[in-house]
Amino acid sequence: MTALLQVTDLTRTYTLPRDSLFRPPAQVQALRGVSFQMRAGRSLGLVGESGSGKSTLARLVMALDTPTSGTVHLLGQDLNALPANALRAARRDFQMVFQDPYGSLDPRQKVARIVAEPLAALPQVTKDEAHQRTVQALTSVGLRAGDLDKYPHEFSGGQRQRIAIARALITRPQLIVADEPVSALDVSVQAQVLNLMQDLAVEFGVTYLLISHDLAVVHHVCDDVAVLWQGKIVEQGPAEQIFDDPQQAYTRSLLAAARPVAI
Questions:
Q1: Which of 50, 224, 234, 253 is most deeply packed, by most CB within 10 A?
Q2: How confident is the model at residue 262 (pLDDT cuts 50, 70, 90)?
Q3: What is the arrangement of strands in the sheet containing 5-15, beginning at the earlier edge strand?
């Protein structure tokens, strides 16, 4: 059975601006040989503190950045080897929810256009079909069809993140990469969004790559956990194994710092 997502020996090195004419520019290795795989229906939580390389990994998985070395295969396709048109078509199968529900939605566009935007990756979608899908996506996250004519500033933070999730759902993807999707929200609203994500996984068969610094958040959504530290995965396995019997001191420190989420 082909893995939904296969990440192999992924590295990403960034070159810093030169600070001297007599020395080569410094480099920062954000990822150092990261490998993991995901099966359809088993969501993976990627956890680690700020600066561990989580968001860099999210960008590489989404083919928004190019690895220094290593590969990202989605449904058997090497995303970085695809020509632009083929990558555009492949994006129907993977979408992203960003951290900031305020900055990730264009304030100049109405909700209808924001949610429907990813449909550009689908061939031959008529105007009527696009409208039907947009309404379905919005109502599936607990908002109303009448909200399509509103602008993002008319919604709360939690509602804006629901709009972002609706946008990610509209192409009916197999994988959604969610990068700190609730960290900018109040605790009570976090619980609502996490419950929504669980419900949508059941209803639509979505598999999540959930990226977070908070193990408590990951615990409620994910089947498996990978712990990232200084650009490397130091521990991974089924969620209950990681939570009940962590093997690494770094994982234990993350668990000790975790706070409960009121689900």
A1: 224
A2: very low
A3: 27-38, 5-15, 69-74, 77-78
The answer to pTM > 0.85 is: yes
Between CA 61 and CA 82 the distance in angstroms is 14
3-state SS of the chain?
CCCCEEEEEEEEEEECCCCCCCCCCCEEEEEEEEEEEECCCCCEEEECCCCCCHHHHHHHHCCCCCCCEEEEEECCEEHHHCCHHHHHHHHHHEEEECCCCCCCCCCCCCHHHHHHHHHHHCCCCCHHHHHHHHHHHHHHCCCCHHHHHCCHHHCCHHHHHHHHHHHHHCCCCCEEEEECCCCCCCHHHHHHHHHHHHHHHHHHCCEEEEEECCHHHHHCCCCEEEEEECCEEEEEEEHHHHHHCCCCHHHHHHHHHCCCCCC
Instruction: Give mean pLDDT, residues 102-116.
Output: 91
Residue of 134, 136, 144, 142 lying closest to 161 (CA atoms): 142
174-211 pLDDT, tens digit per residue, is 999 999 888 878 887 888 888 899 999 999 999 999 99
Q: What sign does the dihedral 108-158-168-242 (CA atoms) show? A: positive
Q: What pLDDT is stored for residue 50 in this prediction?
A: 86
